[in-house]
Write a structure and sequence with these properties.
DNA Polymerase III, Chain A, domain 2, elongated, 26 strands, 3 domains, alpha+beta
Length: about 375
Amino acid sequence: MKLTIDRSDLLRALSHVQSVVEKRNTIPILSNVLLSAGPGALTLTATDLDIEAVDAADASVDQEGGLTAPAQTLFDVIRKLPESADVQLEFLPDNQRLSIQSGRSRFALPTLPASDFQTMTKDAGSVNFSLDASDLKRLIDKTRFAISTEETRYYLNGVYLHIHDGDNGKRLRAVATDGHRLALSEIDAPEGSDGLAGVIIPRKAVSEVRRLIDGFDGIVSVSASEAKIVFTAGRAVLTTKLIDGSFPDYVRVIPQNNDKTMKVANVALEKAVDRVATVSAERSRSVKMSLEADKIILTVNHAETGHGVEEIEAEYASDPMEIGFNARYLLDVFQQIDGDVIEFDFSDPSAPALVRDPEDEASRFVLMPLRV
């Protein structure tokens, strides 16, 4: 293998694939990235056997071939080279090394044979559709913060992507929950997506898809089977196994009849919660929210860490009420609000609250209260 490639093109492709590699690996070749030089292009592939990422970049190829090299080291070397540099990659058969040359910089990395690299088997997708990268970014960004990290409930360790047939017609809906909070976002169902009964995309795969489409403004193709889902954005392709489990019936936990509505400036409430949470107990991080006519009083009172109170203006005309929330969960939701105002719908202190963004009717959030 021998080729010359623009450093920026190589770095872009490497950044899309190398993060799939697990830092600690018992199988040495899984710490490597597969480099395949073909006519006019270099293709890079990385996998952890659950997720596989592939991308390609234009290159001047003098000798076709393939090898694997340490993904993290290769990425770090290329990242630190000058921005406008050309990079020469060449396999040195005498010592089985990958030679990297750019200007006065020279490196030689150990390699393993391309024939030993394990790639994921491809399933024929039973559901195929396309959507704008901007829509996919929004579905991910509005929901992934609520993915559970509790491994015992593995079926909550991802984003549930499915078709929901509601009052507004068929919608492609993404949902994530950890049992304490829920995030939902949806778009009009793309053509061809009707058969998507429901797939749970693992947390790591969600992050990798988001990384893949960061800065990409085109159309993303999606192909889903019972066991895998494939995202294609330009030359970049990410294949991931799906979580084999049943996502809970989340619809029943979304409040339908909360009749106490509060509207408040989102940034003002975010900053106030952040300030009072400074003295909350780290484990619970509970903040008491006292709702009164046209104002909210936020209180944290802890015997060891201290006492804090904030009062801010709000639109609220229902009966006074006190309700507690995890401050971290509140702050996460504030980050998802696009407009200036955030809207809460309450029922009583023990019932979940529905949080909405008046500027984004396609997204909703549910927060379970804490006892304060």
